[in-house]
């Protein structure tokens, strides 16, 4: 028995070591990029010979970068609102509905998660060219919404499935109408799922690059597209600064989601 415990302990430490090594391998490039964004060398030397905020100053005073940043933020906010709203309606139908082919409909909604992004991007590009939406804000929103919607449906559906339906029934018995039940009972009870859907939808749009490359035009580019196009032309620390801002907002939102979840559980 003691030998078994020793083996389990050794296996645990081995798994922790492998997991730590994989995490370090994945995170080190991000750490390097953040460090290079503060380096005072324009040749991206690591470790940097000195430290400066010059690249962030250039980033935040360049109208091209600012326009791309604002475009990404605008599209992400619109996509988040639409994704949560449509995801809520779809989740209510999928979880509460009793219609034939419900699993097929659910699989259809989740298809963008398993479909290669480049295939989706090429299909949207060809379709939007025909209807004149390529290079427009509407085209960006639709493309990003297709990618973000499955995350909303999964998060909200999980909350609805764990929700006690008897609370809605009790509210109905007390005289509340169907809409009032949804607004005053259902939505507050699944607010954590709605919050998770909003975060994942925002990040799905904020970080999207493949679909955005096909949707972009010379006058309308998101921040990831701007980073990609600049990277192909010139390797400058401003790209590292822009990438750090992109990653920074992602980390902040993920930490905010974890904090809200921990507060909710406490």
TrEMBL record:
It is a multi-pass membrane protein. GO terms for biological process: transmembrane transport. Residues 69-257 form the ABC transmembrane type-1 domain. Keywords: Cell inner membrane, Cell membrane, Membrane, Transmembrane, Transmembrane helix, Transport. One of its GO terms (cellular component) is plasma membrane. The chain crosses the membrane at residues 12-38, 75-95, 107-131, 137-156, 192-215, 235-260. The keyword Transport applies. It comes from the Bacteria. The keyword Cell inner membrane applies. InterPro entries: MetI-like, MetI-like_sf. It is found in: Cell inner membrane; Cell membrane. Belongs to the binding-protein-dependent transport system permease family. This is ABC transporter permease. It comes from Trinickia violacea.
């Amino acid at each position: 028995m003691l030998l078994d415990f020793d083996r389990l302990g050794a296996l645990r430490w081995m798994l922790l070591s492998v997991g730590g090594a994989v995490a370090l391998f994945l995170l080190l490039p991000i750490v390097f990029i953040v460090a290079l964004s503060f380096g005072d060398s324009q040749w991206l030397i690591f470790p940097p010979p000195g430290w400066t905020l010059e690249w962030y100053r250039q980033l935040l005073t360049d109208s091209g970068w600012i326009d791309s940043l604002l475009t990404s933020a605008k599209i992400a906010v619109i996509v988040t609102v639409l994704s949560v709203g449509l995801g809520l309606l779809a989740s209510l139908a999928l979880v509460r509905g009793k219609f034939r082919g419900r699993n097929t409909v659910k699989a259809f909604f989740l298809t963008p998660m398993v479909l290669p992004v480049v295939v989706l991007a090429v299909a949207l590009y060809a379709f939007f060219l025909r209807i004149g939406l390529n290079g427009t804000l509407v085209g960006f929103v639709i493309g990003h919404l297709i990618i973000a919607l499955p995350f909303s449906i999964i998060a909200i559906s999980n909350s609805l499935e764990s929700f006690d339906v008897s609370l809605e029934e009790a509210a109905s018995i007390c005289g509340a109408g169907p809409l009032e039940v949804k607004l005053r009972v259902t939505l507050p009870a699944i607010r954590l799922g709605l919050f998770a859907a909003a975060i994942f939808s925002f990040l799905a749009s904020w970080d999207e690059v493949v679909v955005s490359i096909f949707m972009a035009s010379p006058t309308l580019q998101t921040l990831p597209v701007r980073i990609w196009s600049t990277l192909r032309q010139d390797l400058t620390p401003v790209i590292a600064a822009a990438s750090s801002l992109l990653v920074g907002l992602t980390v902040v939102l993920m930490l905010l989601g974890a904090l809200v979840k921990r507060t909710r559980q406490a």
